[in-house]
Amino acid sequence: MTTYSVTSPASPDQLPSSATSNSSLSSLTPNNFLTFLITELENQDPTQPTSSDEMLTQLSQIGQLQSATDLQSSLTSMVQQNQVASASALIGKQVQGTDQNSNPVTGIVNSVQVTSSGVNLGLDSGSTLGLNNVTSITNAATASSSTASTSSTPTTAAA
Length: 159
Fold this sequence. Notes:
Elements (H helix, E strand, L loop, with lengths): L16 H4 L9 H13 L9 H37 L4 E6 L5 E12 L2 E6 L4 E3 L3 E6 H9 L11
């Protein structure tokens, strides 16, 4: 059984920047793993060197990590693009929902904004409604024409 010995760097300045932060492991990059791999190679026991199979396994795992990270980034981007497309289809429609404070909001969508919190709809009332908080969608023309059709203009016939 091979044992590995990795010595600590002399100072925190020698660690990759993401290793010195309190962030999660998801912030580690393939470069961080390569740095750790090189440190492992520099500090391995010369009488029991790491086998080439173990090195290939580690490099393969680094490649899989990078592929998974790229896939996650691509999927996140695709989801956001789909949300923007869905939100843009709501422009001109009357929507109902709740704002971030759980207050009811109603209005006609006149813009779409992408923020760090997600895709939001700008309403004619000046309110902002998160796409995920929409509870009802109606055609604005149908909603306004029902009130407009109740008034009629009288017609007069010529004698």
